[in-house]
Design a protein that fits this description.
- By secondary structure, the protein is an alpha+beta fold.
- The protein has one helix and ten strands; from the N terminus they run αββββββββββ.
- The strands form two sheets. Strands 1-2-3-8-7-6 form a six-stranded mixed β-sheet. Strands 4-5-10-9 form a four-stranded antiparallel β-sheet, with no helix packed on it.
Length: 174
């Protein structure tokens, strides 16, 4: 199977996915505009994807948002909690995590690191939006040395690794 076959398969799934979203949006508007239904606020649909090339050369698709594809049936579900767009950058001695979380205040955000230092959990509950993300980190980190900032809807977290990458030793050639 070539990379093009994999991409074509993804595009077919993507088309079915968006057809289902469109069907569900039409259904929601019909339901909300029918007589007797009042005060209901339509749900919002937040969906995106990122395609990168994995270490094996095959495309890797990461989806984010509050629209989820159910694996057991050919349907989608829209949930209140948003799975935010997240980037993880691993350096020699630290890991940087950048999370797109507009619509919440700094005080609404809670960050947790697991006891083994290998999982970061992000929860945010604002007035109109809720976010949740559990991230498996590429290495264990020291929670005591973590730094986080939130500005203009972007959460930036800098985590120091517990084990520094060894640079090795130079060997002289005789």
């Amino acid at each position: 199977m070539s990379i093009f076959d994999e991409f074509e398969r993804f595009m077919r799934r993507w088309q079915k996915f968006f057809e289902e979203i469109e069907r569900q949006i039409e259904e929601d508007f019909k339901r909300l505009s029918s007589p007797g239904v009042s005060g209901g606020r339509p749900r919002y649909y937040y969906y995106g994807f990122e395609i990168t090339v994995g270490p094996d050369g095959k495309p890797v698709v990461r989806e984010f948002g509050n629209v989820r594809r159910r694996s057991d049936v050919e349907k989608i579900e829209v949930v209140d909690e948003i799975d935010p767009l997240t980037d993880i950058v691993e350096e020699d001695d630290k890991i940087k995590v950048v999370v797109d979380m507009p619509g919440v205040e700094k005080d609404d955000i809670k960050l947790y690191i697991s006891e083994d230092g290998k999982t970061l959990t992000i929860d945010a509950k604002g007035k109109e939006r809720r976010y949740h993300k559990e991230i498996k980190l590429p290495a264990a980190v020291d929670p005591g040395k973590a730094k986080a900032t939130y500005k203009n809807g972007v959460l930036s977290i800098e985590l120091e690794k517990t084990e520094k990458k060894k640079k090795g030793f130079e060997i002289k050639i005789d």
